[in-house]
Design brief:
By secondary structure, this protein is mainly α. Strands 1-2 form a two-stranded antiparallel sheet. α2 runs antiparallel to α3. It is elongated, with a radius of gyration of 17 Å. The N and C termini lie far apart (about 35 Å).
């Protein structure tokens, strides 16, 4: 699959020390505004389905747990990227 222009810009800003701070900030914003927002919406929809009783509770619980795990991992990544080189 070809890289988008944004992905090529991020790749161009990657060197042996990692992403520069501007590229890291841009990537953090893209992760926050894209997949994290979608996963949060998915989590809310799963909760609504569970409250209506429209699906098997075991399956919904598993999906909700997986969704929460992905959100947590992406949040950690966004925090680390936003903190920039050196962490914290």
């Amino acid at each position: 699959m070809p890289l988008s222009a944004e992905d090529r810009r991020v790749d161009a800003n990657f060197d042996s020390d990692g992403l520069d701070s501007a590229a890291a900030q841009a990537l953090a914003e893209r992760l926050h505004d894209g997949p994290l927002q979608l996963l949060a919406a998915l989590s809310l929809r799963l909760t609504a389905l569970a409250n209506r009783g429209s699906a098997d509770s075991g399956d919904l619980g598993e999906l909700k747990g997986l969704t929460a795990s992905v959100i947590g991992e992406l949040n950690k990544l966004v925090y680390e990227l936003a903190a920039g080189p050196g962490g914290d």
